[in-house]
Design goal:
heterotrimer, A alpha/beta (864), B alpha/beta (426), C alpha+beta (163), A: 864 residues, alpha/beta, Ubiquitin-like (UB roll), Alpha-Beta Plaits, Rossmann fold, 5 domains, six-stranded mixed beta sheet, 26 helices, C: 163 residues, alpha+beta, Arc Repressor Mutant, subunit A, Glutaredoxin, 2 domains, four-stranded mixed beta sheet, 7 helices, 4 strands, 11% strand
Chain lengths: 864, 426, 163
Amino acid sequence: MQGRNGLPVCVKNMSDNGKEKEQVTLTIDGKEISVDKGTTVLDAATLMGIHIPTFCWHPKLDSIGACRMCLVDVEKFPKPAVACATEAMPGMIVRTDTDEIVKARRGVLEFMLLNHPLDCPTCDKGGECDLQDNVFHYGIDKSRQAFTRRRVIDDQTTDAFDDKRIGPEIIRNMNRCVTCYKCIRFNKEIAGEYDLGAYERGNHTVIDAAPGEQIDNFYSGNVVEICPVGALTNTDWRYKIRNWKAKQTLSLCSHDADGQNIMLWHDQRQLWRATSRRNDDIDDGWICNIARYGYQYINSPDRLKTPLIKKEGKQVPASWDEAISLISKRFKEIKDSKGSVCLAGLIGGNQSVETAYLFNKFFRNKLHTNNLDYRLEYIDLKGSDETEAYNCLYRAPFTIADLEQADVVFVFGSNFIKDHPAINLRLRKAYRKFGTKVYTANPVETKSADISLDEMIYSPDTETAFIAGLIHAIIDNKYYKNIDETKAAEVKTMLAPATLDEAARLCGIEQERIVNLAKVLSEANNPYILAGDYFVASAKRHRTANGMYDLANLLGIKDSNAIILASQANSMGADRVGVRPRLTENLKKTLIDKWGEELPESPGSNTSQILNNSLDEEIDGLFILGANPAMRYPDGPFVNSALDKLDFLVVADLFETATSAKADVVLPLAGWAEQSGAYVNVEGRYQKFEKAQDADKGIKSGIEIIHSIARAMDLSLNLDNAALMHETKDIVDAFEREARDEAKFFEVKQAQIPEHDNYPYRLLVGNDIHHFGYVTEHCPSLMRFTPEPYLEISPNLAEKLGIDEETLVRIESTTGKLVLKARFSEYFEGDVLFIPNNFSATEVTGLVSREGGGWVKIEKLDDK
Amino acid sequence: MEQVFLKYIDDPNQHKIDTYIEHGGYQAIQKVFKEYQPTEVIDTVKASGVRGRGGAGFPAGLKWSFVPQNTGKPIYLACNGDESEPGTCKDRVIMENNPHLIIEGIMICCYAINAHHAFIYIRGEFAHPAARVEAAINEAYAKGYLGKNIFGTGFDLDIIVHTGGGAYICGEETSLLSSIEGSRGNARIRPPFPAVEGLYKCPTVINNVETLSSLPSIFNNGVEWYRSHGTEKSPGTKIFSLSGNVNKPGNYEVDLGTPLSYVINDLGGGIQNGHKLKAIIPGGSSTPLLMPDQIDTPLDYEAVAEAGSMLGSGAIIVIDERSCMVWVLMKLINFYAHESCGRCTPCREGTAWLKQLINRIENGDGQPGDIELILDVCDNIMGRTICPLGDAAVMPVRSFIQHFRDEFEYHIEHKKCKVETDYPFV
Amino acid sequence: MILKESTIKEIKTRMERYPSRRSAILPALTAAYRQVGHLDNAVYKEISRVIEIPYVEIAEAATFYTMFPKHEVGKYLIQVCHNISCSLRGADNMLIYMQEKLGIKMGETTDDNLFTLISVECLGGCSAAPMMQINQDYYEDLSREKIDTIFADLRAKAEEEGK
């Protein structure tokens, strides 16, 4: 196997899994220790509390033994050995503190300082610099350097410190570099990115972005974090505050569903930066740029700081008392005059699980309505959510770290790096370190193509046909397990298209490739199927989910190994505490026990139904907390008219949004960093985050807002914060899911693909790689990566239509039109287009229908 | 004296396959295929005592026996023709004059270690030698000596010529592998040793051009014949590249154990223009000096080591009385600083610092204490680096100061050379 | 495109012989250098496309190796060995002579763009010192007369080709 860079990749040896590790006993500094075979001397010493200094070593990178700082003395070795790459051997006698070793380390430090500018007073790394610490420890206080120190200057370095910007967020100061290569190793080994390199050689070696380019990959912030000195710093944080003056607070990424662990650095006034807080179960200590820079919206000057009330068609500032009593009055009126079924609540998927639970309790238990949902994103299309197969796969007991044990992973419908930054890196690790084979199927080529043994590109909207084809291939070739031929023949009748040949032709992928994937999956010991946002956003996702369910059953794939991945920080949390109209029997029981009351009887409406009912004037009062369906939900014009029809709309959010513009009352909402709480990530893992800073006086948390409204309506929820936390945790812990029924098979029928004669191009809408949801345009760092919306188009289609890069293009669908700049993508081929939906100025949802995604026509705008 | 490598040096057609065959070429490999099992080849090579001619002198047969068989991975052979150690130009002459000898040697080795893919790494500057070797390989393919089912034995072998790009470090075995893989020629830490995890993470043997070229003679003439040349522990013949201040510089093949004086005086015609011998670098630029009173040292691994130096690559550089040793050392340290790959700290920074210090002495800016500083920097490099380049840079520095400290002290004090220098160009 | 079809073909032919296409980086750099006369970012980009290895990897490898000039040089790149064996036989003085002869300093190119003069580390011609390499060719056992002849011959050859 060859990776993208042509380097060999290891081949999986499944027999190693789960084996008890052999132990070896060695002596370090006179004390014995037993460790797993394969442990390095460095790790063994660390286990004993013996500190061995390092620069180039990193626990998650392959050791290269380059800095020579970790030299130790090993008896019978002819010369000192690097502890970071010397495997502990039985009977080995190691000394870390001999005179020779201390001299060696002092020697290394002297070499490092030789051309170092010693500009600690103006270096941003001061206080958290390995070079400072090691020099301090080894007491190098005299310089024998008599020559002018080497400076690395080129036409882009600034005069002051020889700084050079090498990426939207990264400044390089080569004078300070100790050439540990950690940045480049991370970039290539872990992220699989090739925008940073080492050039020249010897002591002329320089680290820089690819010549003439920038380091702007999605994980690029990590290279700054692992730099042991101030050679790489990021503009987000540098020169703003000294790190020892900042407080640190445990937190989580508030955007995607992976639950990357972060540390927030802040003072009383504001958040200053986010760094990783290594969690080997989730992120291995690597975080994506959205987790790293995506905190900045909290400190945006655009934050809402006072409630607004619509008076004579205009929203004007008001006091909290005025706003809350108006909400209470109007909700009461609607409830009393039209009944609870005319009230509804929608809450965003990145509100804390406590907020989500309290929201649920308020609506169900106090307002007595089942009209509530958290799925109001672009991927949450109408009426496709409540099927058995879909819910079963969505709630599968998946664990990220277990991917390392996978021998085959099939990623179905996901631009993995965008949808799941942490799982993406774990998959890359599994591929690189453990020889996991990766297969992918997507509507456009993705960044996973370099690790995918076969990246299959299916025609738009043929997800169901693809999976039906896969099932055909399994049955035709008798790859199935656990069922007999009769059953297999029966399952085959439940498929449309009715043959592999037809299915293959419809989705535009050669039969042999589908059969090969079927074969590989059937031969695997521990295969995975992971479905992401393209899958979820597809027009008939429930039909495709049926297929995935059948597929998993046919191949005997473990319950934990076939999953439709959730997309937002607390999607799973909201799901588990019941923020949706229909609940599982188990959850109903839990809630009834907890609340001591029956639940409302009405069937309840989901997002799509709530909006429809608003349009039909069957819902009059709506409370939207931390969500922006007018910008994010498909079919913008429809959402807008639905919101317009409401008698009374309350929107609580951090910013004024397209949705809040429609509101009768707008409430300034606290962000996640301004409160404590928990998120439940894609695995169903409950993780707490702490409050890092106080919100502005004019801002309240979701929990406070719900309590205030409830109190004003005399519907006290009677839960202080501690009790709320407990109760929420109880509900989350009580979650039980029915395992996939291995004997059950669903129909898998590809829906008719509507004709789009006048609108020939399939438009995909989603997150830009450096944006997530609708708040990241308030993060200046992320805006530096992607400052404006664009139309992503394949170079060949652009050529066909005479469209040049960076020129304006008119995009039109049956529901709306837009003008955007064209951007060519190496990943796009043919008639598929992409527009990010993270920019409030671009009403891209206006182009997308609720039924079948976006079909558009485009033309070059005349040069004027 | 009987010769192996340079026997047909005067035949302008020796590089052609027909001439090579006429001179008994490709007999050894056919004999090996017919009469030997791979393990027997290894045993024979072990018995012959042939040692690595690249510099380290490691027994070739023993090296081969470290290669794990049956790992499911392919096994590779890399033939090292990077020849970049100053003073050394012996492999070039084999590549130019006798390329089929190398190919036959490679075939024997590959058969022994069960490799079907061999690489000849030739330094990039050697465009013509590389072209010769490549042409020879093509001839061998055309004759069916390479490729599939060689001599009808079912044995397959492909040989690829890989040329470098100007980097001494790529002669170091792990850097050589990095370079073949397409990476920067950075040295890698050992373990894993190349024999276990080398090229493309597969078991790999790396042998010098001259080492592999020795093999046909062993199988043609027998172990006993081979051992009749050289000494007990250093058997066989070796090419010595004689350069510097001698009357007749050149490549001379002699039995190991031949006195150094024989090579310099009898073959090399003595010191240039009758000048007085000052010092000898016996095994390539990184080996410590031998002094005039050591001129009778036998040229074998043990004797040269005993004399305080190393046989190394067999590059004998003769320095006469007209040279300032500070200047000579400057030439050497400039080289090592230029060739440091930059991977590990002591070599990257240390060689550059030594270069600065030695240059300033040569330039008349030396300071009292510089010699002690230089020696201390040497201590901080020696044995602390990933690969031997650090040691290679330090050994001549220490040796020059040990033997000619007075010249360094004089240079620092008087800002000029102690000796009357003359480096004439005619 | 900078690289000619024949160069690309050579690169691809060589690439196919290796177990990994990444190994084609050095052969590609060599082929490109021989065609273009030097290497730069534009060349790395093209090589990257031909052998499908990331651009940065090509640039990293190329800048590691010193044999390839990274900017335009004269028609004849003269690389003079200044290492020990050549120096002991007068390489320093030879360099002075050559600078005078060509009317340029080290690292410079003659006005007619014919000769670029640089000094390099050991070229492995130690037993025939002093020596130099001009483009692919070695010139050994050099003397003043030899150098005069070599330069004159090259000038004549260039003139011939220029016609």
